[in-house]
Amino acid sequence: EAQVTQNPRYLITVTGKKLTVTCSQNMNHEYMSWYRQDPGLGLRQIYYSMNVEVTDKGDVPEGYKVSRKEKRNFPLILESPSPNQTSLYFCASTSVATNEKLFFGSGTQLSVL
Amino acid sequence: QKEVEQDPGPLSVPEGAIVSLNCTYSNSAFQYFMWYRQYSRKGPELLMYTYSSGNKEDGRFTAQVDKSSKYISLFIRDSQPSDSATYLCAMRMNSGYSTLTFGKGTMLLVSP
Question: What residues contact A98, with CB distance under 8 A and at least 6 apart?
Answer without folding.
Answer: none
